[in-house]
Design goal:
Length: 345
């Protein structure tokens, strides 16, 4: 089996004492993971990013690749190479998150959640690292309770197109709980609600990326169903702050914590807002509602406020403005790259 370098590097522990080791971020080349890697490197951590690039992109971490405190390892968490040397923290974000992407290969998605979590929990057990799981509001399925509190057990199907993701994440939470209770691993579980922001891939398939890409191209916006289903959108900067706060908190119990923005809006309102902000000539077209699409989603964040002192700061309007600007810049860069100097003459 391959093994990965054992640099012994100093890192600040939450208590302020200097300890030796790295922070591992799996899924670090993805949308959320790349922002997390950036924040951690900026804060002085040594980061090993592990990603198989199934939905992640090297361009997301390109500026970090030359940083002395950052390393990238292309690997699959299902078949994790041996990681030598001390590890202080593990953020497990590896898993396709867009329904369009995680449904492409449902068996891979389920295996990523279950085997990935097992491999990383074993690594945490061996090294004494603290480990955080990127869980999801999808563990609540199509909720019959709103807002969703952590005690709500959820309304989830163990088959159907979303099951590979929902049940995989639920099983991973079970593993995190049992490794904490039976093996003393220091675990954290973040239940992440819909998050958006710069670096979502234009072909990601999730609603914010779809609507912005469609509007900037002057295409019609595709609302699935009647658009009355709701979501609550959290800016990625807020989410990253919440993930780090959860990791660094001195929680004594392995209970999950919701991280999201409680401002709930319908998909139809989101479409109208993006059309207005981009001043696009686009109209609305309706497409079939995907099977098992949750009707409502809104986090109760009382626990995150009480335990972490965390709450989101970025409102949807400015958050969308920055995201639209990012998508517009990326489209321009792509157009410029296609427009060679020879053609320009
Ligand atoms: P993303 O698809 O952009 O990132 C996922 C990353 O994981 C990608 O870089 C991908 O290449 C990598 N990956 C997937 N399977 C892997 C495997 N088997 N081995 C190694 N790498 C693998 O998605 P995201 O939005 O950045 O989500 C990150 C995490 O947060 C995911 O675990 C997701 O379930 C969770 N989450 C995200 C949201 C959200 O709205 N963004 C909501 C709830 C939960
Ligand atoms: N959606 C939509 N049009 C799109 C993409 C998504 O109407 O082009 C809807 C989707 O049916 C869901 C909501 O937007 O009700 C959020 O979908 P997304 O894929 O972003 O994430 P989900 O919360 O379903 O995991």
């Amino acid at each position: 089996m391959k093994s990965v370098g054992s640099e012994h590097r100093a890192c600040e522990s939450p208590t302020g004492t200097r300890r030796i080791g790295r922070t591992i971020v799996t899924g670090g080349a993805g949308f959320v993971g790349s922002h997390l890697c950036e924040a951690l490197v900026r804060a002085g951590h040594h980061v090993l990013c592990i990603d198989n690039l199934v939905t992640g992109r090297i361009e997301n971490i390109a500026p970090l690749l030359i940083h002395p405190r950052f390393r990238f390892l292309r690997a699959d968490v299902i078949d994790l190479p041996v990681i030598d040397g001390p590890v202080l923290r593990i953020y497990n974000l590896a898993c396709p998150a867009s329904p369009a992407k995680y449904q492409l290969d449902p068996i891979f998605t389920l295996r990523t959640s279950v085997l990935g979590a097992t491999n990383l929990l074993d690594l945490a057990h061996r090294t004494g690292a603290r480990i955080l799981q990127a869980s999801t509001s999808e563990v609540y399925g199509d909720p019959t309770v709103s807002p969703q509190v952590e005690e709500y057990a959820g309304s989830v199907k163990c088959w159907g197109p979303r099951a590979c993701y929902d049940e995989g994440k639920r099983a991973a939470e079970t593993l995190f709980h049992d490794y904490a209770m039976r093996r003393g691993v220091d675990t954290r579980v973040a239940r992440i609600f819909n998050t958006y922001g710069p670096r979502m891939a234009p072909d990601d398939g999730r609603v914010v990326a779809n609507f912005i890409t469609q509007a900037l191209n002057g295409n019609d916006l595709t609302i699935y169903g009647n658009g009355q289903q709701t979501r609550s959108f959290c800016h990625v900067d807020d989410l990253v702050a919440g993930l780090i706060a959860l990791m660094e908190s001195d929680l004594k119990q392995p209970a999950p914590v919701n991280l999201g923005n409680p401002a709930e809006i319908t998909v139809a309102e989101l479409a109208a807002r993006i059309i207005s902000m981009t001043e696009a000539p686009s109209r609305i077209v309706h497409r079939a509602l995907p099977v098992d699409d949750p009707r409502r989603r809104r986090p109760d964040i009382a626990r995150a406020k009480a335990w972490l002192g965390w709450e989101p700061k970025v409102d949807l309007e400015p958050g969308l403005r920055g995201t639209i600007a990012h998508f517009a810049r990326a489209m321009l860069d792509e157009a410029e790259a296609l427009f060679t100097p020879a053609e320009a003459i």
